[in-house]
Write a structure and sequence with these properties.
The protein has helices at 24-34, 87-94, 187-194, 211-224, 227-238; strands at residues 6-7, 13-21, 40-41, 48-49, 52-59, 78-79, 100-108, 113-117, 128-136, 141-145, 148-150, 156-160, 166-170, 176-184. It has 2 domains: 6-207, Jelly Rolls; 209-240. By secondary structure, the protein is an alpha+beta fold. Mean pLDDT is 86; it is low at 1-10. The strands form 2 sheets. Strands 1, 2, 3, 5, 6, 7, 9, 12 and 14 form a 9-stranded antiparallel beta sheet that branches. A 5-stranded antiparallel beta sheet has the order 4-8-13-10-11, with no helix packed on it. The longest helix has 14 residues, at 211-224. The protein is built from 5 helices and 14 strands. The termini are far apart. Helix 4 runs antiparallel to helix 5 (227-238).
């Protein structure tokens, strides 16, 4: 087994440690410069306890408070004002040669718990995927994915198959802050991923979005009110 790879029972990859490593001191310096920004409480409040907050670095409307991922992928992302103070994070993001769907900082405060949950169609086999780059963490952060604990060091880069049940607890004395990137699969990413695992290791598994997440998505679509968002909402309502 290649280091950093864990397989599901059906041979779909759970996670990969990608061959990128970033300067944690420079990441943390950028983070320090924006610590006093207006972090937004994560919208999925039923799935966690304590403080879990987010800042959008890129978003559809260019606002750092627009933290919802996965809405209207026909619209490109704009840098939020946060990025003016994040030169090294910008350089880090330029490493990844794929279309970004969401780029956020996600902070789990001391004592906070993200309850077991799964996301919808967010595995590499679905064509869209999620990367985590820890900026600050501690040994008492427990990230559990598919029943296995993953230890992610500061500055490393990980693919996480968010279709799998996952949970996080921060039992340490410092907040845990990750740079989280959602992107679209392409030839560049295929080369990276297939160098670590065979193409046959990525098998699509159909899973129904949990009702509470579907409800949150529909509420957000209504709030957005754009023609594209309302079209997606209409399609969802037809399939309920």
């Amino acid at each position: 087994m290649v280091a950093g790879i864990m397989l599901m029972n059906n041979h779909t990859i759970k996670h990969l440690k990608l061959p990128f490593e970033f300067d944690r001191s420079l990441l943390q310096a950028d983070l320090q410069s924006i610590q006093d920004s207006s972090w937004v409480t994560h919208y999925n409040q039923a799935d966690y306890s304590g403080s879990w907050t987010t800042l959008a670095l890129y978003s559809k409307d260019g606002s750092s408070s627009s933290i919802y991922a996965g809405m209207d992928n026909t619209v490109g992302l704009k840098a939020t004002p946060i990025m003016d103070a994040c030169e090294y994070i910008r350089e880090t993001l330029e490493t990844f040669q794929f279309e970004k769907i969401a780029v956020r900082l996600m902070r789990l405060n001391v004592g906070a718990v993200i309850k077991p949950h799964r996301d919808n169609a967010l595995g590499y086999e679905d064509g869209e995927f999620r990367l985590h780059i820890p900026i600050t963490t501690n040994p008492d952060v427990n990230f559990i994915l598919g029943g296995e604990r993953i230890i992610m060091d500061e500055g490393t880069c990980w693919y996480i198959n968010a279709n799998e049940v996952h949970s996080v607890t921060n039992q340490g004395t410092t907040d845990r802050i990750h740079l989280v990137i959602d992107g679209k699969r392409n030839e560049w990413t295929d080369q990276i991923f297939y160098a670590l695992a065979s193409e046959s290791s990525f098998q699509r598994v159909e899973k129904q979005m949990p009702l509470n997440q579907q409800t949150l998505m529909m509420e957000e679509l209504k709030r957005m009110g754009t023609p594209a968002a309302l079209a997606i909402l209409e399609n969802l309502q037809k399939n309920i």
